[in-house]
Each structure stands twice: as structure tokens, then as C-alpha cells.
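Researcher: I'm preparing a figure for a lab meeting and need a structural model of a single chain. I don't have an experimental structure, so a prediction will have to do for now. The sequence is pasted below. Please return the structure as C-alpha cells so I can convert it later.
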Amino acid sequence: MRAGEGRAAGATVHVALIADATGRLVDDAEFSNESLGMNTVTPVISGRTGAAPHPGAARVGIGGPVGSGKTRLLEQLIPRFIERGTNVAVITNDLATKEDAERVRRSGLIDPARVLAVETGACPHTAIREDPTLNIQAADDLDATYPNLDLILIESGGDNLASTFSLDLVDYWIFVIDVAGGDDIPRKRGLGVIQCDLLVINKTDLAPYVGADLERMVREANDVRGGRRVLLTNCAKGDGVDEVVAAVANQVLFDR
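Model: Understood. Here is the structure written out cell by cell.
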């Protein structure tokens, strides 16, 4: 089974038109709770002939607390995936703005049209776990717009240690914590830390300045994760990010 086949049937449709409750058309490059008063959807059909259908993009979530470095990790991942030939697009989530999407669009790292924004209008975990409809529709739209897309990176808004991704939305998810948040985070056993496919401990360069015991942090992370992968990064400089790319390539993309 390829990555993504386990997603809900709703992941096979493309938002053709979005209108709010008054009938006003809304730009389908942006998704928010207010804009989804009515949806008309059409199936995604491959236009290619004489070739097997493209399997569709793998969907990888990036979650974690506010300020842990999710967007900075995203900005480090994008050029590395592009360099390896991965056809990539991005979805960001923010509470009531498009701040992170606009940041990524301005970065020059990726075609701005490949970056969609979701305004959750509530706690970020609600749009990636309890009701991921907004993000599923955004991902479906990217899949339909770019038929040979390999990877969609879905960044959650900043949340708490209990934040997790629905597997109706993603095939694999990364949880980012940082040493400045406290070296006791892993042993507190938040669901994000325990259940994610890949735990990233970011801002390792700050450990001596905030009194964090990085060795203990890594040890306790490994203890609570039951063998699941833990990687260290300094996303400000890009240290350790190649290992994150390799993990996604090996476990999700299968070097497609």
C-alpha cells in the first residue's frame, strides 16, 4: 500500500468552487472556517494517458509548540527537497492570519502559488485532528493543480504538547520541540512527543545558554518513544536538517 491510501475518501476530491454563506466567491487559494459555508467538489481525474496514474502527493505534518521552530524547519526542508527532485507544495495553518504562508511565499524558496494558507479560527489542533476538513481540501486542491506533486508539507499552528495529527490528513508527521522550552519536555510524555513518527529537538545550540541538559533530553526522549526516531537540529543554520529529509524520503517518499 502506498503512502496515503489509508486516508479518508474525502481526500479524493478537489474544491472546484468555494462560496461563503452569502454566495460571495472566495479565492480558492485560501481556506478558512468563514469561507466554507458551501462547497462544490469534483473528483480529481488524471489527465495523463498511456501511463500509470501518479499516486498523489504524500502528506507530511509538522507540529509542535509555539516558537519551537516549525516554520524555520519548513524553510530548511523546502530547498533540500527541491534539490533532490521532489515536487513539493506547502500548507500553513494560523489562528486568524496568513502570517506563516506569507512568510514562506516571500522567502523565494518556492513558487508562491504552491503555498496555501488555512486560518483555523480556533485552537490549531482542531484543524489537524478533530476536523481536518480545511486542510484536506487545501491538499486536494494542490494535488489537482499539480498532478505530479510528490509531497505536501502541512505545518500546524503552534499548539501544546498534546497536539497530534489525524491520519485522515497525513501519512506521516513530525513534532518539533526545542531545548529553550525546557529539557523536561520529553519525560512529561505529551501525546505529540510520544506518538509522532519523528521527534525533532530543535535549537540545540541554545542548550548551554538556557541550562538545558541536551544529553538527558535525548535519552529521555528515546525512553518514552519506544524506539521511534529522534533527531537533533539547529534550524537557524540547517544543522541536522539533511537527516530529517532522509527520514521522510526513506519512510514516506520511498525515493520516488
